[in-house]
Design goal:
The chain has about 250 residues and is of the alpha+beta class. The protein has seven helices and eleven strands. Helix 1 packs antiparallel against helix 2 and helix 3 crosses helix 6. It is elongated, with a radius of gyration of 28 Å.
Length: about 250
């Protein structure tokens, strides 16, 4: 029975996880205990059973307690990050499309569902502005990344649309050489065009965090439009464009 269980588990989960994971160890120990009880002499069973159970508890209890403490600490750290992310969404809710899906620790949640629940129950787990600004740097970085995606801060610009924007918006373009950066301390509604080559173009943003966060670009075209729907954002969005390998052209309203 034990060998059958181990063989089937190995065949089904060969590349899925560590053989030392608790979900594999506990059934194995239980089956082994059943076998030992079954083969133990009946005369000694009354003594062997409590002794074996005591030894088993002494072995597994410290490890389980450590797992509980580690799990508790992980949930507390995750809660801080999640509350910061939700706080950023709520503070900018009028600029976040309801069809946006928020990726909270690999758990996708539609913004419409979350904001509807907040209104319905008149309660929220999210940080307010003061709490968000006082949150740990890592939590504020995650909040910036999520909000930048939700507001579509960086979008692709096709060759035709980029030319039309430059002609219509009176853009002034500058060349950013490899190793140099372009920064703007306050991003408004007016669009900024970034014309470069992927992946040698880097676009980083920050709003609540102290450090810039490099964004995953929406496509590999190398042509992007940067702009925020919230011109009065407080604190404002700040951006940084970096070039590596080849120059990047950055165009902004003059």
């Amino acid at each position: 029975m034990l060998l059958t269980y181990l063989a089937l588990t190995a065949l089904a989960r060969t590349t899925e996880g560590s053989p030392f994971a608790l979900r594999y160890m506990f059934p194995t120990v239980f089956l082994l205990l059943v076998i030992l009880v079954a083969v133990a002499p009946r005369d000694n069973l009354k003594i062997a059973y409590p002794v074996g159970l005591t030894v088993l508890i002494a072995i597994v209890l410290p490890h389980n307690l450590r797992q509980l403490v580690d799990g508790s600490n992980h949930l507390k750290e995750s809660a801080v990050i999640t509350r910061a992310e939700l706080g950023a969404i709520e503070l900018s809710r009028e600029f976040v499309p309801l069809d946006v899906t928020m990726d909270l620790h690999e758990y996708p949640i539609p913004a419409s569902n979350y904001l509807t629940a907040v209104d319905r129950f008149e309660s929220s787990p999210a940080y307010d502005r003061t709490e968000l600004m006082a949150a740990p740097e890592l939590a504020r970085q995650n909040a910036d990344r999520l909000l930048a995606l939700a507001e579509s801060l960086v979008t692709p610009a096709g060759a035709g649309s980029a030319g039309k924007l430059i002609a219509r918006g009176n853009f002034v373009c500058r060349r950013v050489s490899p190793g140099d950066t372009f920064t703007r301390d306050k991003l408004g509604i007016s669009e900024i065009l970034v014309l470069g080559s992927w992946p040698e173009t880097g676009i980083a943003v920050k709003r609540y965090a102290s450090d810039f966060q490099l964004l995953a670009l929406p496509d590999q075209s190398g042509r992007y439009v940067i702009g925020t729907p919230d011109a009065a954002a407080d604190p404002p969005w700040q951006i940084k464009v970096e070039a590596s390998g080849s120059p990047v052209r950055v165009c902004e309203t003059g």
